[in-house]
Amino acid sequence: MNGIRVLDVGAGVAADLGERIDGRPVDTVAVSTLSAAVDRIDADVDCVVTAHDLPDGDGVAVLRAVRERLPALPVVIVAESGSEAAASDAIAAGVTDYVPRSADVDLGARVAAAVRDATDVPSAARLDALRDAFPDLGFVVDADGRILEALAGPQSATHLPDAPAALSGRCVDGVFPATLAAATRGVLETGTERTVEYDLAAPSGTEWFEARVAPADGNLAVIVSRRITDRKREHRDLRRQQSHLSQAQKVARIGSWYRNFSSMELWWSEMVYDIFGRSRDAGPPTHETFLSAVHPDDREDVTDRWQAALDGEPYDVEHRILVDGETRWVRERADFSFGDEGDPVEAIGVVHDITDRKEYERRLETTNERLDVLHRVARHDIRNRMNVVLGCAAELRRALDPDRIPLRMVDRIETAAEELLGIGRQLRDADGVVANDPDRRPVDVAALVDELVAEFAADAPDVAWYTAVPDSLTARATPTLVVALANVIENAVDHNEGPRQRVAVVTERDAEQVEIRVVDDGPGIPVVERELLVGDRERTQTVHSSGLGLWLTRWIVGNAGGSFDIHEGRNGGTVVVVDLPRAVVGSQRHG
């Protein structure tokens, strides 16, 4: 029984083949290079098994050399990993079998099948093997554009408009889109490989493919099509996301950038170009490009901050830039990544155009300065002028004879002057509330309410007081809470009426809030004023509140993180509700 001689070109398949194939002894001749393989190709060789990657070439070159000398000699190419391009080249050159090396492949059996079915026309068994090894769609097309063979695995066959066997004999342009048909004609005419994309209506739905069309011996063309539907969808989704990101950056006036320090690559998003007033046509941006746009007075500081960021410090800087002679403001932030040696590798950052914010801050600062001056002048002048008015009223009272001239006009003058002095004090309190930052701390609301009720009760003996306050009730508030609660209680006392004047102060607590309710029997706050105070109506020149007391209360409660509300009582009168965040301090005993 004659043995089988296998030329092993860098594949190392002796262990896979064993000592016998179909009962015949196996003699493996091993070489490692393309040149050595070419020297050993002769009629004594029954099969060539070659690695795809060789030191001086590849397995396809070995295959072509074999086909020139011995067209019927079986050639098996063993690839370490599957490759569409390599498989397509191998098929075009007339490979017997193309086998990706893996634990699931019986290489010895595949070589045995190649020897057994050796012929110059690919057999059905070898086509099946190729189909299994290369699961994409494969077609062999003749010079007239007819499909001679259609190769498709079970999964890829679902992407065809018909069964693979039913496609044989049909023209490419009758099955596939014009783009693929035109590419196939071009390859047959010129012998030059082409790659095209096309979409196809298949039972699985509309599918996208990338086809590589290559010339083959005998004036044939080989088409290898890979499904890329998922990739196209991913690209579509990515383009949509990029469009949304670009639109968001445009709305927010925020751009993004990327810096690679090894390649010195600097990438800007469209919005960065827009913010800096630079065109892409001016060439790729550089760090020097960026620095040239920085305002000269800010350039040294920006450079220092950048150098500090290269050493690991946070990069967050606001500075001016010059755009077509106009000064604008930007805020830049970036995250840096560093290598094992501490050298910067890359940076990703954002640029935010804050020109409008800076302009608003400038106008606000100017407005606050003006208001502060007007406020201090108004308070000073009111106090001085009203003291003069009160002094004159006192002199007038002493000069007039009450038995002959009624003094009610003097009383009205003194009352109005005292009220204006009170407004001055309220302005001072308001200035303290608005100007100072909230300093929140635990405040014993129960003790504060008890003290205020006792103080007002002493000054208003005709008012009946009703309180429901625990021994201790701690809220988180600012020290000016005493001013807010005093205003509410004073308002309840001043606006009571009738023979029975009553004021009730009730406090409650739940897991998160402390609630203070002040109820009176007065006529109630007018609807318009109540809506203004709780924010349900816009302030205008003709619609405004008549005093500062409850406004102060609203601001103080807001600074404490609480809420303020006013509504009508069930039996008339007014109910003012102040809610404050609870502060848990030790244990609290309820009464």
From TrEMBL:
Its EC number is 2.7.13.3. The keyword Transferase applies. Residues 313-366 form the PAC domain. It catalyses: ATP + protein L-histidine = ADP + protein N-phospho-L-histidine. Residues 3-116 form the Response regulatory domain. It comes from the Archaea. This is histidine kinase. The lineage of its organism: Archaea, Methanobacteriati, Methanobacteriota, Stenosarchaea group, Halobacteria.
